Amino acid sequence: MDTNILIQENNFQDARKEIEKNKNKKIIFSSNDDELNRKILEKEKIDTLLLNQALRKDKLRQRDSGFNQVLAKIAKKKNVAIGINLDEIINSKSKQKAQILSRVKQNIKLCNKNKLKMKFIGKSKRNIYDLKALGLVLGMPTNMIKFMS
């Protein structure tokens, strides 16, 4: 059970079929639809919920990171880790990168409060020590860094 599979869907039925097909693998689920993320988190067995930040629009006084206390409680109950999209951070321009990093920081605070695990997920391979250093800079506590691999 050491192989990871990334499932990106925008339809619940299609996502459910893909998850069922790959149930013997570690499933990383990602969608740009917050409602679908919540539904999958509640009803299906996944290992990691990957949150995409690049296409989000912030509210006037609040960051829209696609993650909130409700999702955090469900993830804690179902033992689901929260994924940070590393490729989005690497491939974005300076202003967008700043917005993405601040949304990630907000998610880190929420995960820390609810004692959730977080992972960096991306196609580009990085040194684990670089990822741990990035996590520390973004505000991850050391007990969260230990679980990265």
Q: How is this structure best summarized?
A:
The chain has helices at 12-21, 34-43, 69-78, 86-91, 94-113, 128-137, 142-145; strands at 4-8, 26-30, 48-51, 81-85, 118-121. It has 149 residues and is α/β, with parallel strands linked by helices. A five-stranded parallel sheet has the order 1-2-3-4-5.
Features:
149 residues, alpha/beta, five-stranded parallel β-sheet
Polypeptide structure, described:
This protein has 149 residues and is of the alpha/beta class. The protein has a single domain (4-145), classed as Metal-dependent hydrolases (TIM Barrel). The protein is 47% helix and 15% strand. It has a five-stranded parallel sheet. α1 links the parallel β1 (4-8) and β2 (26-30). It is globular. The two termini are 15 Å apart.
Task: Tell me the layout of helices and strands.
Layout: E1 4-8, H1 12-21, E2 26-30, H2 34-43, E3 48-51, H3 69-78, E4 81-85, H4 86-91, H5 94-113, E5 118-121, H6 128-137, H7 142-145
Parallel strand pairs: 1-2, 2-3, 3-4, 4-5
The CATH class = Alpha Beta
Question: For the record, what is the CATH homologous superfamily label?
Answer: Metal-dependent hydrolases
- Helical stretch tally: 7
What sequence of helices (H) and strands (E) makes up the elements?
Answer: EHEHEHEHHEHH
| Proportion in helices | 40-55%
Could you tell me the CATH topology label.
TIM Barrel
Task: Find the count of extended strands (DSSP E, 2+ residues).
Answer: 5
Distance between the termini: 15 Å
Low confidence ranges:
none
Query: What characterizes the major β-sheet?
Result: 5 strands, parallel
CATH-derived architecture: Alpha-Beta Barrel
Net shape: globular
Strand order of the largest sheet: 1-2-3-4-5
Q: How many structural domains can be distinguished in the coordinates?
A: 1
Strand content: 15-25%
Residue-averaged pLDDT, rounded? Answer: 90
Radius of gyration: 15 Å
**What structural class do you assign from the helix and strand content?**
alpha/beta
